[in-house]
Write a structure and sequence with these properties.
- By secondary structure, this protein is of the alpha/beta class.
- The chain folds into four domains: 2-48; 53-263, 2-enoyl-CoA Hydratase, Chain A, domain 1, CATH 3.90.226; 272-314 and 316-403, no CATH class; 410-466, OB fold (Dihydrolipoamide Acetyltransferase, E2P) (Beta Barrel).
- Helices cover 51% and strands 15% of the residues.
- The chain has 15 helices and 16 strands.
- Helix 3 (67-82) runs parallel beside helix 4 (99-110) and helix 13 packs parallel to helix 15.
- The termini are far apart.
């Protein structure tokens, strides 16, 4: 055995030379495998962390739900999903709004790639009408103390009931939608149906006392809200899930507000019926001022104000009849400047203005089940400003006439010729002595542009008669 070992001495040497190279290659492979496994492990740990997100995006649904709010919600939820947010928090304080806009918001919530939490807040807030649907669409629905939810019946924009057939169709559709939302999140379907059919409403205490509850929990602030959600289930044991998985942990995550951009805020402001009414009023008086005192500025500003008012009214149920009543009221104010009516024209103008303002947004619009109208305080303020405007205008005209008598005695116009600026039958406006004067015809009707002769003066009014034309 010893001989055989010595006799094969050359082979072991070659093997000894080859062994380190082979060992080195295998060691390198093992190290590469180990590094790859480490990287895969790190990646597998990093993936859930990225999916969990590093912040919560907060959106605010306030005021009437309109197309501006809907676009803001769509963009906000989409941006939150792509920014690595763990969840979207929608803070709700809204009386409701358009059904079409509500549909857009519901679609955005249901298609969200991350959990959506709806929270009726702050204290004293409400989720009425369409906002009730939005609240129940959340993966977690919460309410702050002293808040309420409900009254989701579909009515006309002025608060009136809809025609029977139309009401039944829209109500049944709304009931099917809201009960499906409640069922999918383990909430009270019976109450959800009554919110639409019977306009049922509930405080936060009532909402949580039902079985199952209307919403999942009560929280006064975001810290308490996230702490309750992190428990993983509500008080009756119903688990909070998203796509069948538990919600990510939210406590301690920063909350980042995603507010409307300047353009959205401006358009949303214009959709306020009070703002639209004020813009209509400013626009009419701007154009009126342009007619009396041409200067381009007041006319341009008036036109811009009216255009902005129409833009804001695009999401409101504008009643054209109410708009015409406002125009008629302003027209009566203008007539008061030219005719002595002992206040009757002014009184008529006030009545038309008030009726038009109240009727401006009372058309039936099934897409907007919120009562929309102009505040009585705004209406009273507009009337007072209108009366002050025309009082100052009349006073200024009288002062101008008084100053004219010092530079050109009106009595000196007797016997002078002139022309009719308006139809004088029997009163109107005459142009004589380089000025426009109130005139009264003593010799029959005088058409605009026809010559006339001043035959007398009564106060600041010219007594005129038609000028005989040469044959």
């Amino acid at each position: 055995m010893a001989a055989s070992a010595n006799g094969g001495g050359s082979d072991p040497e070659k093997e000894a030379e080859r062994a380190p190279a082979y060992t080195r290659r295998m060691s390198a492979v093992r190290r590469a495998i180990a590094i790859a496994a480490l990287l895969l492990g790190v990646a597998s740990l990093a993936a859930p962390a990225a999916g969990a997100g590093d912040h919560v995006t907060r959106l605010h649904l306030s005021g009437v739900i309109d197309q501006i709010n809907a676009a803001y919600m769509e963009e906000g939820i989409k941006a939150a999903g792509s920014s690595g947010a763990a969840a979207v928090l929608i803070v709700i304080d809204s009386p409701g709004g358009e059904l079409t806009s509500m549909d857009r918001i519901l679609e955005a919530i249901l298609a969200s790639p991350i959990p959506v939490i709806t929270w009726v807040a702050p204290e004293g807030a409400r989720a009425g009408s369409a906002a009730t649907f939005v609240t129940l669409a959340g993966d977690v629905a919460a309410m702050a103390p002293s808040t309420n939810i409900g009254a989701a019946s579909v009515v006309g924009s002025g608060g009136e009931d809809l025609p029977t057939t139309l009401d039944r169709k829209i109500t049944n559709d709304a009931v099917a939608r809201i009960t499906e939302l409640a069922r999918n999140h383990g909430r009270n379907e019976t109450w959800a149906e009554s919110a639409v059919r019977d306009a049922a409403s509930a405080s936060v205490t009532e909402a949580l006392s039902m079985s199952p509850p209307i919403v999942d929990l009560e929280a006064a602030d975001t810290d308490a809200l996230f702490a309750e959600i992190d428990i993983g289930h509500r008080s009756d044991g119903y688990a909070y899930t998203f796509n069948g998985e538990p919600l990510p942990r939210l406590s301690g995550l920063p909350v980042i507000d995603a507010n409307m951009n300047i353009g959205q805020q401006f358009l949303h402001l214009l959709s306020d019926p009070n703002i639209a009414f004020i813009l209509f009023t400013i626009g009419f008086y701007g154009i009126l001022a342009e007619l009396f005192h041409p200067n381009l500025v007041s006319g341009a500003l008036g036109a811009i104000a009216i255009l902005l008012a129409f833009i804001g009214s695009s999401s409101l149920p504008l009643n054209v009849g109410g708009l015409f009543l406002i125009l008629l009221g302003i027209g009566l104010f203008i007539l008061e400047l030219h005719f002595t009516s002992y206040g009757f024209l002014t009184a008529g103008g006030v009545v038309c203005f008030v009726l038009g303002a109240f009727a401006l947004y009372t058309g039936v619009d099934v897409n907007n089940p919120v009562r929309v109208g102009v505040s009585p305080i705004i209406i009273v303020g507009a009337i007072l400003l209108s009366l002050a405007y025309f009082f100052l205008l009349i006073r200024g005209l009288l002062q101008m006439r008084a100053r004219r008598t010092t530079t050109l005695p009106i009595a000196s116009l007797v016997g002078a010729g002139g022309t009719a600026q308006t139809l004088i039958s029997p009163t109107g406006i005459a142009y004589a002595g380089g000025e426009a004067w109130s005139a009264r015809s003593r010799g029959g009707e005088i058409r605009p542009g026809n010559p006339l002769r001043v035959v007398g003066v009564e106060g600041l009014e010219l007594i005129v008669e038609p000028e005989e034309k040469d044959g």
